[in-house]
Structure formats: structure tokens, C-alpha cells
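So, could you explain this one?
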Amino acid sequence: MLRPSDFVITNFSELAQGQTALCVGVCPYKDYKDGIAGDIGGHKYDLVLPLRKYEHIAVKVPGSALINPELFSTPNAVVPIEQIQGFSARWYKTANMSEYALSCKATGFTISKEGKS
């Protein structure tokens, strides 16, 4: 039987119904090996998808922060991004969950021109 977790979404623009997203937060994430937290593996970006009725998703990108996390200490800070590279998303569900959730990864993105100062 096919499950939602059997499918991988690789086209960000189809998921977001557009090419851009709004980044509203950044925080580091740790890599885990055998259930033990290790070093910082990259950063998780909280994104809002305007063309999806402002749905929120989180996208993990390995490596150093592409947007300074301190920028979001300012209330209502938003950074428009585009050109999400190496995007992949997969639905998952654990035994403790009643509904599926979406796990998203990417290799990088570009800050939109209107987001640059």
C-alpha cells in the first residue's frame, strides 16, 4: 500500500505555488547519530508561503547561516527569499502523531533583491 511518506516533493515552486517565500526565523539544528545529538549540522529556516495562504514550513539547510539569526530579534522581521536549490520534502508520521507532517531540506537559496539593503 502506498503512503504519503513514499513520495518526495522536489519542486519548491509547485509546493509553494510560486518561486518565493518569506523567511521569518532562523535557528541552528544539530546532527544526530544513534539518537545522540552531535555538532551543529546547519540552520532551519521558518518560511511563510504567501501564495499558499501564508502556510508555514521549516526548511533545513546544511552549513553556516545564509541569513543572520540575530536579524530576527527585531519584531516582525521578514526576509524574502527565492531560488531554493536542492529542495526535497517528504511527508512523515511517527507512532505518536495523529496526522502527517512535512519535512523539508534544501542545499541553499538566494535572498530576494527586495530583501537586500
User: Anything to note?
Assistant: The first helix runs from residue 12 to 16. Residues 24 and 78 are 5 Å apart (CA to CA). The chain has a mean pLDDT of 92. Strands lie at 8-9, 20-33, 36-49, 55-62, 79-85, 88-92, 101-105, 108-111.
